[in-house]
User: What shape does this take?
Amino acid sequence: MTLRAIKQIIPALETSDGAGVRIRRSIGQHQNIRMDPFLMLDEFGSDQPQDYIAGFPSHPHRGFETVTYMIEGHMLHEDHLGNQGNLKNGGVQWMTAGRGIVHSEMPQQESGQMRGFQLWLNLPAAEKKQPAGYRDIQPEEIPDVHLDGARLKLIAGELEVDGVTIAGAVAGGSTRPLYMDIHMEPGKAITLPVSEQLNAMVYLYEGDARLQHENTDTSLRLAAATILDEGNQLRIEAGGDGARLLLIAGKPINEPVVQYGPFVMNTREEIEQTLRDYRDGRLTA
Ligand code: FE2
Assistant: This one.
């Protein structure tokens, strides 16, 4: 058993996207700051409607997946196929853009609050041209795992607890994504297995916590992607106020990534073709 240490800390930058939605972007803030197979992680949240009310009007995607997880408020979405949905508080929309989708995402307050995350998961070359699709995951479909000192929502992947394997709401996939939202009680510590085949990171979004590694004990930075080194376990201890954090891991694709805004392909030529397809209305054809 090898505990994972900290490899790199990527503090989120405050920026805006869409029609002026205020976000905190950690991985994906520059094209060389990623963690294969993940391209981007945004945290959005506000009690000020003007920060996000204009939302993300109609925009395209090709070549990857977007995973939107709301923890407060909800999100209305609509796409070029006429699909309409309302992503509820605690729910996840797992959207495979595949060869192309044009959609809008409009965050909405609930009791004056709106908060969530959007993660971009790359697809290998062989899967970039698949038809677009959605998985709308209701809050009650996400396994709620109780550990001594913590509760976690297993959005994707598998977790072994006391010799029993628990499957998340989304299982499998060529990059074997693992995605969990962990709520820790004050002063408690947990040890979680994370396969050594996966790249892994944690994102502390509330409270304080430390990552324990042999004799060292390092405070996790709030609102930062903390990329972990190799190993097959991770051990976290919450501070006096408890902690809320995401654990995100996946098998690296190890292919070239060429990104132009919302299009993520393997070569420049494919991006140029994508731009022509979008201009000519063939992105989603
Ligand atoms: Fe989008």
User: Anything to note?
Assistant: The two ends are 49 Å apart (CA to CA). The longest strand covers residues 233-250.
